[in-house]
Amino acid sequence: MPVNAHGFWKMLTNAGVYKAMGKLHVPIYRATRGRIGHKTGAIEQLLLTTTGRKSGLCRTLPLTYMRDGNDHVVVASHGGNDRHPAWWLNLSAHPEAEIQIRGDVMRVTALEATGAERERLWPLLTAMNPIYLRYELLTDRAIPVVVLRSTSA
What we know:
alpha+beta; about 150 residues; single chain; globular; Pnp Oxidase, Chain A
């Protein structure tokens, strides 16, 4: 049975391709202090470490981000999947986290952007990474826009 474009994107996300790439990305990013893995073209990535809502274990993954003043903004798109990504569920339960940008590590608190703040950020995010527009078409859920605010001294 042929897979249409919508089905292809869903299959790619569900196949764990992103998860597998992340398992390679994290140690390389850390070992090179972001010299490898921080930037792909115009897209920049940070490492986000959350606390598991069920396990209590720390989990780290690479995410595309955008700066907004002193804040860092990430998108819980999960590749257009109908479920929220685990990292967002973890942050919803435990909003305190850690990010690494290149060699800099900082503590952050995660806040979901809503209302006017989300309306302001979403066009900036989709201009930076137009694939978010495709993800938005693949799911019926509202894709969370997450502000990571530094709590480091």
